[in-house]
């Protein structure tokens, strides 16, 4: 227990470095772009329009406020995809620096997940705009959204730490994860309603796909203006913490040998 507390304190000492790395990532993403940060809002809007055109006729008619429904799923899954993909290269991408000086290796992974989190917050501007256009009633329950986002952030942090250390030893992980992520996206109710699935498949997704829980909580507080079920919140928080502990444990156990493979 003392060891865990010491590591958290040690991580806090590098908060300024993490903040600087996050600022650098966010600035680099839109460097030399004419519209700059506006793309954070335009991009999800354009993708949403394309998905409505493609999937709207198939799934949209039975789902109230389908554009908002779609955008919530898209925003959450994009954060998972962007943060974990970037975290995979957070160690090998900084190999030159790690060979020259001592910097805690997890700092680079945390900064990648956090910069993706900032991008997600910017992208929520699109969600606000679409909610206003669709006349989705605003309720006090939206104050629960940061709790859902925190669960998702912790889950992505754990998965990102696991992928970062695995990619150092096995470069093939990036290709395997790319295919896995595509399958994961189609097995997540982003553009379709889970209620349209056959009962056995619905149960598999509900209990084995963590993204179902996070996206469902988000949709409930925004679209249904009520608190999510306690079971859904406990399940989402528990999965996030387990993933964080597992990812941090794998990273800690293998980090001393990174220098031999980067």
TrEMBL record:
All copies of domain ABC transmembrane type-2, residue ranges: 35-254
Residue intervals passing through the bilayer: 34-56, 68-92, 113-133, 139-164, 176-194, 232-252
InterPro entries: ABC2_TM (IPR013525), ABC2_TM_bact-type (IPR047817), ABC_2_transport (IPR000412)
UniProt membrane topology term: Multi-pass membrane protein
Gene Ontology biological process terms, A to Z: lipopolysaccharide transport
Cell inner membrane recorded as keyword: yes
An example Gene Ontology CC term for this record: ATP-binding cassette (ABC) transporter complex
Top-level lineage group: Bacteria
Example of a GO MF term: ABC-type transporter activity
Similarity comment: Belongs to the ABC-2 integral membrane protein family.
Protein name per the record: Transport permease protein
Lineage summary: Bacteria, Bacillati, Bacillota, Clostridia, Lachnospirales
């Amino acid at each position: 227990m003392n060891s865990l507390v010491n590591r958290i304190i040690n991580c806090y000492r590098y908060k300024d470095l993490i903040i600087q790395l996050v600022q650098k990532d966010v600035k680099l993403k839109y460097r030399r772009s004419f519209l700059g940060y506006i793309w954070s809002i335009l991009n999800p809007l354009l993708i949403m329009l394309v998905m409505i055109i493609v999937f709207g006729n198939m799934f949209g008619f039975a789902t109230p406020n389908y554009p908002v429904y779609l955008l919530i799923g898209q925003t959450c899954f994009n954060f998972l995809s962007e943060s974990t993909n970037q975290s995979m290269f957070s160690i090998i991408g900084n190999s030159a620096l790690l060979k020259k000086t001592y910097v805690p290796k997890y700092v680079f992974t945390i900064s990648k997940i956090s910069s993706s989190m900032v991008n997600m917050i910017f992208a929520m501007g699109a969600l606000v705009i679409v909610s206003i256009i669709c006349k989705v009633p605003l309720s006090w329950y939206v104050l629960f959204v940061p709790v859902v986002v925190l669960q998702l952030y912790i889950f992505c942090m754990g998965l990102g730490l696991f992928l970062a250390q695995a990619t150092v030893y096995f470069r093939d992980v990036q290709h395997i994860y790319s295919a896995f992520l595509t399958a994961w996206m189609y097995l997540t109710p982003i553009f379709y309603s889970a209620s349209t699935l056959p009962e056995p498949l619905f149960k598999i997704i509900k209990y084995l796909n963590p993204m179902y829980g996070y996206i469902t909580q988000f949709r409930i507080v925004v679209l249904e203006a009520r608190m999510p079920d306690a079971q859904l919140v406990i399940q989402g928080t528990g999965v996030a913490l387990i993933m964080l502990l597992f990812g941090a444990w794998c990273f800690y156990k293998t980090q001393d040998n990174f220098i031999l493979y980067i």
